[in-house]
Amino acid sequence: MHGTHGTNGTGQLLAVCRVHRLLPDAGSVGVTAIDKRPVDGQVRVRPLGLYADVQADRENHGGHDQAVYAYSQEDADHWAAELGYEVVPGLFGENLRTRGLEVSRAVIGQRWRVGSALLEVSQPRTPCQTFARRLGSPPRWVRRFTVANRTGAYLRVVEPGELRAGDAVEVVSTPRHGVTLADWFGASFRLEGSRPAAELAATLLAEHDAGGSLLGEEMHALALRAVG
């Protein structure tokens, strides 16, 4: 992957996407809001996500720690080559399509200024069967997405604001712990070459407890569980 995941750097917001319509789905909820499509003009970002966007499965999606989902054009190009068709903005259910930042390797707690909003990298996306069905159920899709470790980033809204396609995505701060989304996701699923989850969790919790980079509620619970 190419781009920036360190202490500085600037990417570009290529598209802002929100739900186009609810689609019937074979899952327990019966519908899905994964059909996100680009919208024009400025879009308000609030603590629970983009204005006029929704999540159908509130038990597993949404909330403050999953308010906004970002995916990079670089990762989308990887999957376009794998799938044999263009991965257009919104196809993976993302709200923000970026270029120039290593989104899937962003440091947990890293903050981005996008338009007038301040967003914070909170956790990786875990693929589900709804995601697979959205793509027409490619063979072993959930496993393939997991092993590739190109998860994209869930973002917390630190400061509400407005953003639009074409805005810069500026990395304004990066926590000292250095644990990336890819590090955590790889450890959680015991992907080849990953560090132990307990080791990463201890690093995250040490900075959290010292008042440095504060973990969101879900990540804090996961880290505590990992260290036992």
Strand content: 25-35%
Query: What percentage of residues falls in helices of 4 or more residues?
Result: 25-40%
Number of strands: 13
Low-pLDDT parts are 1-7
Helix/strand-derived class? alpha+beta
Termini distance? 33 Å
Taking all Cα atoms into account, the compactness measure Rg is: 17 Å
Strand order of the largest sheet: 1-8-7-11-10-9-13
The gross shape turns out to be globular
- Major sheet, described briefly? 7 strands, mixed, barrel
Give the number of helices.
6
What is the residue-averaged pLDDT? 93
Write down the secondary-structure element order. Answer: EEEEEEEHEEEHHEEEHHH
Q: Quaternary arrangement of the chains shown?
A: single chain
Structure description:
The chain has 228 residues and is an alpha+beta fold. It has helices at residues 73-83, 129-134, 141-148, 181-188, 197-209, 217-227, and strands at residues 10-19, 23-24, 31-32, 36-38, 43-46, 49-50, 68-72, 96-99, 111-114, 117-124, 153-159, 161-163, 168-173. The strands form three sheets. Strands 1-8-7-11-10-9-13 form a seven-stranded mixed beta barrel. A three-stranded antiparallel β-sheet has the order 6-5-12, with no helix packed on it. Strands 2-3 form a two-stranded antiparallel ribbon. A hairpin with a 2-residue loop joins strand 5 (43-46) and strand 6. Helix 5 (197-209) packs across helix 6. The longest helix is centred in the C-terminal third of the chain and has 13 residues, at 197-209. The chain is globular, with a radius of gyration of 17 Å.
